[in-house]
Amino acid sequence: MKFFAILLACALTCPLAVYAQEEPILIRFSHVVASDTPKGKAAERFKELAEQATEGRVRVQVYPNSELYRDREELEALQLGAVEMIAPSLSKFGPLGAREFQVFDLPFMFPDMAALHRITDGPIGEGMLHRLRLKGVIGLAFWDNGFKSFSANRPVHVPADLAGLRMRIQPSRVLDAQMRALGAQPMTLRFGEVYDALAAGVVDGTENPPSNFYTQGMQDVQSHFTVSNHGYLGYAVIVNRKFWEGLPPDIRRELEGAMREATRYASSIAQEENDRALAAIRASGKTQVDVLSESGRAAWKQALAGVSADMQAHIGADLIADIRRAIEAP
Ligand code: LMR
To answer: From the CB of 102, is ligand 1 less than 6 Å away?
Structure first.
């Protein structure tokens, strides 16, 4: 009798167990840029690595180009569990209550990528990611894009050239202060809206690394692009905390490994992608590319020198000081 009861229990539960084992865990990874950008490529690389490492127990579905959610919506979707993974630009963490991430928006904060990596690959970056747990998300990694340039429909050589222009910004108080310091009028728009807004003349100009500019076709609607490298744009990859902590530990370990590898890949291609995009902008013949000289950059640094002091209370004076110390340390 007991034997039959076991057999019956098994008959009822075994198919379910097998099904549960075979059904892959789905990671929906939503982002707002094109697939052929540093972030787009790194997301695809993560997919490949994660699916390989887990031998199909995890399936990653990447949704580029705001196909699924746009800027702020994807943050909400992540918190609600409607997607599992996103990689917003560091300028967009305000709605999570993590405005300290806007430290990366401070103009001329990072002299080069090596200085930036001292922060994102070091204890300060680790601490920032760790503190996101309190917001219901887990910060897995920083991914590179690169330094931003200004674009407009007029030559931009000196800060006064932006005076009076409506400049699109990401939703960040620091970027708002930056544009105001230059005499421009900041306008916050979602990334997916920028091309149309430029085409319609709703905004006059914008700032982004070349890869984002070129892959959105902005060379069709902006006559001038000035390589100013005045600020940084990069990402943090974040996951829904409940989802991540509910994963089987072996799967989570594999995914962490895949993320480490995808992060290395992202930093190895970002510069190259931006160089290639800049060459393509030039080759398009539609947008004139100017490069600020070191002395030309000095005028911009001076015009923007007050932004950091004005934003101390917003970002946290200690964090700014810690970052400066870490960058300057021998
Ligand atoms: C932007 O809105 O300009 C960027 O955040 C887009 C991106 O994700 O690179």
So the answer is: no
Residue of 101, 191, 273 best suited for mutating to test ligand 1, as the one with most atoms within 8 Å of CB: 191
Mutate to test the pocket of ligand 1, among 89, 104, 105 (most ligand atoms within 8 A of CB): 89
Asked whether 232 and 147 are in contact (CB, 8 A), the reply is: yes
Residue 123 lies in a domain: yes
Number of domains composing the chain: 1
For residue 39, the domain's CATH number is 3.40.190.170
Q: Give the residue from 49, 31, 47, 113 showing the smallest Cα distance to 261.
A: 49
pTM: 0.92
Q: DSSP string of 245-296? A: HTS-HHHHHHHHHHHHHHHHHHHHHHHHHHHHHHHHHHHHSSSEEEE--HHH
Q: What is the mean pLDDT for each group of 10 consecutive residues in the chain (330 residues)? A: 44 44 90 97 98 97 95 94 97 94 98 97 98 94 98 98 98 98 98 98 98 98 98 98 97 98 98 98 98 96 97 97 94
**Residue-range definition of the domain harbouring residue 73:** 11-328
